[in-house]
């Protein structure tokens, strides 16, 4: 008999014995390691790991956590452990382009995205999304102008706090978060940038790509930081284009890339597969 | 009975009747169209085409060219026609990294690259390339310093002129051509840039890519222009990288991308598949 | 002033002068070629072309068609011409897996798929698709057993005839069409096979792929023929998998491949970019 | 101060405590884990791991091995430990197609392939490879007919034994090894199959691919087993083709895929990244 899985993630300064200490603590708590990834950044001497485990016999999460806290303390760890079945709460921010939203909703409905959707916030009214079944999802229409930006962001933040949102997804939100809100959402806000960063930043990247005559276009999912377009990259992908492709074709092809890059990033985050490493990410996906 | 193939390429302002006029001229010269590509750039109203044809019965290249010159004149064409079997003369410029050179030589030997190698120029002595069979290829060791750059480039240019070089390939040459030489080689000098332009320009792009934490790295083959890293892009490709990859891994993976991107670009150029379109290229490859 | 575009497609035995005759007919009808693709199959000596054109001045489609019919007759062509803006009528057949349906509906709503949806037929009741907005789309619930197959197919065929359906899309329909129905829908019925054909045929290909330990999985869009899994291939794509991937992971990754492969195939068909060449296809996409 | 790296690989029946026991043994031997991968096959209940470590202070490989042998015994492990810098001995078997050979030699010379080449065996004479620098590599010309096959294989086996060959690479060898030799080389003989298995088996797969009209072609590196084309797959890759591609074009594109797929497989094997899992492989590459 064994219990449901847990996900343990941690990072700490590297030194010999970390794995031995962690594995011993798990073993003594009757835990069985099911999947384990680790990475040792030789440049910064930092150590990162993600361990999926379950308990043999009865659940002993509390016992393990208590014992692990002591080990973690000695190793100066940042760490977290949570039941794998726990469903993080997502808040999706979206503007009028809804292809990423459609994809996230579809994957949420099929169970591919094991999260709860705590709400959708848009600067466009709910009619914009008439073809989507939003019947069970709280929707907040929060229009924004340069004058009302700080109030609007305060309203977003209130939603985040009230609903205990774990992850904010900018699913082509098209608005730049203030440095203030970006900082408050550090490490739990994912944006999809419609370009292969560091390629074309700023507005209309597909038109820039067309102007430059590139032969591949791409998209980038990254954590949001106050420094626009410079947040830690989670995932990128590309597709081939040719001289035949007009800017509209690039936009169309781009939609397919964006939705698959964003949904990969979101599901990796949900499954505890991403750990921040300064301005970069460690992604334990294979 | 039919003759060997010819390649006709042209560009001109777009207007109705171009294809009819060209096809009629070919037909009346007893030519049979084997492959045809065209592209109509609606932004600039320019028309581009590449036609491969042979003659039914006896060769009539001269007759066709004479007739076509009149048609071309009326349509304000830039055009060229040449036997497909004609082997362009390549000059390969290389520094100490020889992976692109190795690939080009291999493909030249197997006949995959239907060109003649008019020579290799390097700023490193021939011993650097001891493992390559250069027995039948003229090799010029032309070292260069900031003081001797103009003389060295004059020597390169003399090689180009003396040997009637059709295409100069910068196969990781690592030297920046002067604006003067770049201009003289306009449209017939291909460089391989070890980055997915417009991503990381300048020196050590793989180290830049590592620092930024990108998840894909790439390479770009482009025509050389006086404006470094801004020449018309011919081909690009990418490969996936992860947090595990050190800068050296990126360099290693990059070598594979570079050689395949460069050799595609060179063989398309040789086969008359690339037509310049301002700062972009039209590549007729499928 | 110029008119909307038309798409002309044709195939015929190859001989010199085809392009000249076609281009002349277009020019004399005041048509302007906007895009042109051709292919000469040297094995079968067959010639294939797709030409997009519009008229300079007033529309002259009727005049052109009359003139072209004579040319086409002389060259033993199979041909068709239609306004590009004409929206083909699609019938989507679907079983309980709705990811391809979701994608097609989304792309139809955004206008990316320029077709009309004449109906959806499923062997599952409409409740299965409760989250989709089917308010404006005729839905036929046509359950099927081995006993009722011929009646059910007769009902499908009636829908095809009554609604003048141009293209039947098997969007993970999971039922094998009878040879009879397959024959009647020849060249206008596209299936998505959840494997990289000719890899794993028959049932549960992702489980077969897992059992074999492949490192890439794929999907194949093809025209339906009486010979199951052997119809002319239109498009294929793959994604990387690893030892970590369970059969369920392959199924999940497969969904993404399937929907993008199917939607490419459908949109190329709609845009007249596919011509059958015996048991193969010519796809003019770049 | 720390020593050079070691690679520990093992597989065993899964049970709680494996990682703890291994990590403890490493820690007590003053070893520092630098990189670690593990995989738990839930279908077969088998556990696989690869650990790269070095020693803090002085090298203690002997002490570790002695201690680990006891642990391994208790856990019914198959295991191996070796210095990462140890260079396996490769024997390359090649027929007249030398593109994979050229690539392996190039990567061996640049140090990208950290192995020693113990020899090249070919059924074609050394003149076939005149353009390669084989000056420091033993070359055995071992022609083969159906009559002489067993003697020729005996000669190959003698080379393997005499030179203590660790890995035999069939770099487009084009001969089928007998079941007997295949069995003796189990787990240490890699073949490159010029098709995306299980697609087109047997002879001339690119011609089969052309006949079927596929839109992607591929290659497969796999361990050789007596059951031809059915050995455990290590790596696969694909490239896009179109109706324009003749069989010769597929062969040409195939060469690029083959060499990169084979060289990845060989370098992963050399770096201890592949563990056999019945008829499949576990590849720890990211």
Describe this structure in words.
- Chains A, B, C, D: It catalyses: (6R)-10-formyltetrahydrofolate + H2O = (6S)-5,6,7,8-tetrahydrofolate + formate + H(+).
- Chains A, B, C, D: This is Formyltetrahydrofolate deformylase.
- Four copies of one chain form a homotetramer.
- The longest helix of chain A is centred in the last third of the chain and has 24 residues, at 247-270.
- The first copy, chain A, has seven helices and 13 strands.
- Chain A has helices at 18-28, 61-74, 99-109, 149-162, 179-184, 205-212, 247-270; strands at 6-13, 31-41, 46-55, 78-83, 89-94, 116-122, 139-141, 167-170, 189-193, 216-223, 233-240, 274-277, 280-283.
- In chain A, helix 6 (205-212) packs across helix 7 (247-270).
- With 286 residues, chain A is α/β, with parallel strands linked by helices.
- In chain A, helix 3 links the parallel strand 5 and strand 6.
- Chain A is 31% helix and 29% strand.
- Chain A has two domains: 6-83, 2-Layer Sandwich (Alpha-Beta Plaits); 89-283, Rossmann fold, CATH 3.40.50.
- Chains in contact: A-B, A-C, A-D, B-C, B-D, C-D.
- At the A-B interface, strand 11 and strand 13 of A face strand 11 and strand 13 of B.
Order of helices and strands of chain A: EHEEHEEHEEHEHEHEEHEE
Shape of chain A: globular
Q: CATH topology of the largest domain in chain A, anyone?
A: Rossmann fold
How much β-strand is present in the residues of chain A? Answer: 25-35%
Mean pLDDT of chain A: 96
Number of strands of chain A: 13
- What is the H level of CATH, i.e. the homologous superfamily of the largest domain in chain A? Formyl transferase, N-terminal domain
The number of helical elements of chain A comes to: 7
**Which chain pair shows the most residues in contact?**
A-B, 31 and 31 residues
Give the proportion of residues in helices of chain A: 25-40%
Physical arrangement of strands within the biggest beta sheet of chain A: 7-6-5-8-9-10-11
State Rg of chain A: 21 Å
Summarize the biggest pleated sheet of chain A.
7 strands, mixed
Span between termini of chain A: 27 Å
**CATH class (first level) name of the largest domain in chain A:** Alpha Beta
């Amino acid at each position: 008999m064994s219990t449901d899985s847990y996900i343990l993630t941690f990072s700490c300064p590297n030194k010999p014995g970390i794995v031995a200490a962690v594995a011993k603590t798990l073993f003594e708590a009757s835990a069985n390691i099911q999947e384990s990834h680790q990475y040792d950044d030789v440049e910064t001497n930092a150590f990162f790991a993600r361990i999926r485990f379950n308990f043999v016999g009865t659940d002993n999460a509390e016992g393990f956590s208590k014992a692990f806290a002591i080990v973690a303390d000695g190793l100066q760890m940042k760490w977290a452990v949570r039941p794998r079945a726990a469903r993080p709460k997502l808040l999706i921010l979206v503007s009028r382009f809804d292809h990423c939203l459609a994809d996230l909703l579809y994957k949420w409905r099929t169970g591919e995205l094991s999260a709860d959707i705590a709400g959708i916030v848009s600067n466009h009214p709910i009619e914009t999304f008439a073809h989507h079944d939003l019947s069970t999802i709280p929707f907040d229409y929060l229009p924004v102008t340069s004058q009302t930006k700080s109030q609007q962001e305060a309203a977003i933040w209130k939603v985040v706090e009230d609903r205990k949102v774990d992850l904010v997804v900018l699913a082509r939100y098209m608005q730049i978060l203030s440095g203030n809100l970006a900082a408050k959402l550090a490490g739990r806000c994912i944006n999809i940038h419609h370009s292969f960063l560091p390629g074309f930043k700023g507005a209309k990247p597909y038109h820039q790509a067309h102007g430059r005559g590139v032969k591949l276009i791409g998209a980038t999912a990254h954590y949001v930081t106050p420094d626009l377009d410079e947040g830690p990259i989670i995932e990128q992908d590309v597709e081939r284009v040719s001289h035949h492709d007009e800017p509209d074709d690039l936009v169309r092809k781009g939609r397919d890339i964006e939705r698959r890059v964003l949904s990969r990033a979101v599901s990796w985050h949900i499954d505890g597969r991403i750990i921040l490493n300064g301005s970069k990410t460690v992604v334990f996906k294979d």
